């Protein structure tokens, strides 16, 4: 049984509660990412997505100097590094999410993206099904 530890990204770009939404947007641009875990030390506090910046930040008429706390998602699903890739894929499919913070003993140790499941050809069917279900959900939401 393969575990998340074998395929997760460990070199994560993170933010802190001291960052503002402009600084987070710049990090997203610099690293070409749309998801940033927010940490206090190594403890996961929440995450900010590019969608959070748009919906809760700029569309709510907040300026770039607005504190990250205005846009952060705190109630975040997480997994541990010893979670099986099967279980991770199933969680991602059932919750319609593309990225999961990996947390051991309260500390962020990595991020698992749905692409990590597919790119490394581990449980490709499950990853494909999860991606398909997520894409189908997003497609329905658009129309």
UniProtKB/TrEMBL annotation:
Q: Which keywords fit this entry according to its UniProt record?
A: CBS domain
Q: What is this protein called in UniProt?
A: CBS domain-containing protein
Q: Which residues form the CBS domain?
A: 8-64, 72-129
